[in-house]
Amino acid sequence: MNTSALRRRVALQRARFLRLVLPILLLVAAVGSGCVSTGTNPISGNTRAYGYSWEQEVKLGTEADQQIQQQYGVYDNEELSAYVEKVGQEILAESHMRRPSTPEKFRNTEFHFRVLDSPIINAFALPGGYCYVTRGLLAHLNNEAQLAVVLGHEIGHVAGRHASKQAAKQQIMQGVLMGGAVAGQVAFGGNVAENVMGLGGTAAQLLSLSYSRDNERESDRLGVEYATMAGYDAAEGAEFFTSLKRKSEQSGQSLPTWQSTHPDPGQREDTIIKLAQEWDQQVEGEQTARNQDAYYAVIDQIILGQDPRQGFVENEVFYHPDLKFRFPVPSGWQVQNETSQVAMIQPDQEAYVVFRISQADTPTAAAEEFAGQEGLTVVERGQESVNGRSAYRVLGEGKTQQGGTVRVLAYFISYDGRVYVFQGMATAQQYATYRPALERPMTGFDELVDRQRLDVQPTRITIRPASRAAAFRTFVDESLLPDGITPNDLAIINQVELEGTVEQGRPLKLPQ
Ligand SMILES: [Zn+2]
Fold first, then answer.
1. What is the pTM of this model?
2. Is residue 197 predicted with pLDDT exceeding 60?
3. Looking at the domain that runs over 308-448, which CATH code has it been given?
4. Residue-wise pLDDT tens digits, 113-165
5. How close is the Cα of 26 to the center of ligand 1, in Å?
6. How far is the CA of 240 from the centre of ligand 1 (A)?
7. Taking a C-beta distance cutoff of 8 angstroms, is the pair 379, 365 a contact?
8. How far is the CA of 224 from the centre of ligand 1 (A)?
9. Cα-flanking dihedrals φ and ψ of residue 290, to 5°?
């Protein structure tokens, strides 16, 4: 959980979230039949079918951007944010979105480039001018030219109106626009782990529109074109795809979106180099900028891996140093610590608990809003005390889309000026079996007083030149690596082989 994101979230629309029994909105995509409109492509100037008008794309992008910022959290580093925005705007200036022949409505659309606080390697764009890179991706880049190609690629998706093209194909537009209307239903079944990932509404649907390979190839081409025109050595972009390839070859690694929805990174290395050579011939002037020093100056001290200050699990206890609380996790359950919620999932996905902050002022008020939801029948309710703190407990029942019955157990606990919410869910038949596990975190919620855990700090990257020519491995102090980051991961971050020799003086990204 990310504290600043939570605070921001409170200020945002309350109603949308309070209407939800659980943050399950992915089901919305199936609703409604398509409605396709004809529009102009900013790249080719041709007219074709799109799922949305450009104005709708901008509106949807703006709405989904709020959800993305809440869900992932924006990385707290103004200098780095300003730098990414600056490079993004430079690339944008060379794109089809800003050419004199492009219709005014495209030229006037503002673009935004954001750094998200996630260790996952990812970059993506939303329709209407919103581009994102994660801090995990930034740690993997070695210079500004590589960033330029990545941002150019994302601008390409927006300019190519790829999401809108896909929406026209999948005919989900009405589902998106009606998203709010279906919120408030209880859903259960299907892939619970996916459902509780928590990305709600428009953002989830826009991101679920995976691009076609042709879209990706077009974006790769545009990324190289725009970066070259801005004076960058776009062939550098290939280095990043090499890193992606190595990452995907590691066994047991879950595939970040960037990889799973994009063409084989191996092929792309070659394609990017070829494209860069072609564009180099076509564009006047020097295309040699790499700007490694400038890049390293802004990513020095970037967080490596997970940030334990936003919560971590140790021996089946979840600790949150920033918010100063702890609670036990049901034994053997999987924990997903998202920006705005923590989800605990039974291994067979038969039950789960979601934990988050309520926007209500008191446990009673929060409980009333919860109990008053359409489709929910209250079975039991009453005041409670959780480790001496005032709390309210509600047991409710609701119907699933498939016609089954689920039980939802909720605790609303007052602590440190906030109301914390636990919502646990299992089918009515299995509720008795899972009740002890569901109650475990709820009744075990308590203040975190342990100094060592309160003071935990994330591991950061520091940039240091290699003191001698030697194998990269010899520069890695394994005791400094955070959980989940191996020496080989660090080699990939540095775009070197673990056993490969690095020359003296080469700047290395090392854990501090
Ligand atoms: Zn892409």
1. 0.80
2. no
3. 3.40.1000.10
4. 999 998 888 888 988 999 999 999 999 999 999 999 999 999 999 999 988 88
5. 22
6. 14
7. no
8. 13
9. -120, -35
Distance 347 CA to ligand 1 centre (A): 32
Highest mean pLDDT, choosing among 86-100, 230-244, 328-342: 86-100
In the reported structure, the alpha carbon of residue 157 is separated from the centroid of ligand 1 by a whole-number distance in angstroms of 7
CA of 511 to the centre of ligand 1 (A): 30
Question: How many Å lie between the centroid of ligand 1 and the Cα of residue 169?
Answer: 18
More confident residue, 255 or 285: 285
Using CA atoms, how far apart are residues 293 and 298, in angstroms rounded to an integer? Answer: 9
**Measured in angstroms, how far is the CA atom of residue 118 from the centroid of ligand 1?**
18
Residue-by-residue DSSP string for 193-258: HHHTT---HHHHHHHHSPPPHHHHHHHHHHHHHHHHHTTB-GGGHHHHHHHHHHHHHSTTPPPPHH
β-sheet bridge partners, residue 437: none
Distance from Cα 465 to the centre of ligand 1, integer Å: 33
Q: Is the Cβ–Cβ distance between 57 and 161 less than 8 Å?
A: yes
Residue 325 token pair: 């609380």
Contact assessment for residue 128 and residue 62, using Cβ atoms and an 8 Å cutoff: yes
Using one digit for the tens of pLDDT, what is the confidence trace for 344-367?
999 988 899 999 999 899 999 999
* Amino acid of residue 168: A
CA of 150 to the centre of ligand 1 (A): 9
| DSSP H or E segment with residue 471 | strand 470-471
**Domain residues of the chain, as ranges?**
24-210+293-299, 308-448, 459-511
Residue type, 382: G
Q: How many Å from the N-terminal Cα to the C-terminal Cα in the chain? A: 24
CA of 219 from ligand 1 middle (Å) equals 6
Rounded to the nearest angstrom, the distance between the alpha carbon of 375 and the centre of ligand 1 is 40
